[in-house]
Amino acid sequence: MTADAQFVTGFADQAVVLPVAGSVALALLLLGWRQAARAWVVCVGATLLVTLLLKLMAMACGLGASLGLLSPSGHTAGAACVYGGAIGLLPRRRMAGTLAAGLAASCAAIVIGMTRLWLGVHTLADVCVGGAAGACGAAALRAWAGERPAALPVWRCAAAALAAMLLFHGRQLDAEPRLRWAAARIWPLSLCTAAGK
To answer: What burial class does residue 93 get, using C-beta atoms within 10 Å of its C-beta: 0-12 exposed, 13-18 middle, 19+ buried?
Structure first.
């Protein structure tokens, strides 16, 4: 079962999510849906940045430790935002797309969150915070993207995302040790670490 969880969680590693996000952004730009491309870059980038900052603050300052929040799940946030956001772009109408993005992001967060729990690398609070950040990012992305042009061949975006997923699956960034190192040494986060000693 651990091998299955590792296989599934591999689709949400930043080494996979980042190339998928880049390929979808490029496809949207080349297809001419510029508003969606802007929304994609800003919302995916903001979601990953917020998750990173929460991770650093939790690691350095113990933010939320009493609630079991040790390190918000970047896997869960990235999967919810990127995969949920991509599915949300499929419906033509904004409202239907926002609903689809929210549902898909929630499903991605649950699946990836469960694998992170099964593997013992995150707490329930970690995956809930990551999932919430990702779902908010996906819904905001689709709401900002606007109506999809009728003639836009969305299958090309889907093909770009699928190709990147398959090409990069199995790769890992192993960012957690580097983030722990940074949390202890980057000012002002290092002040929390020093105060805790």
So the answer is: exposed
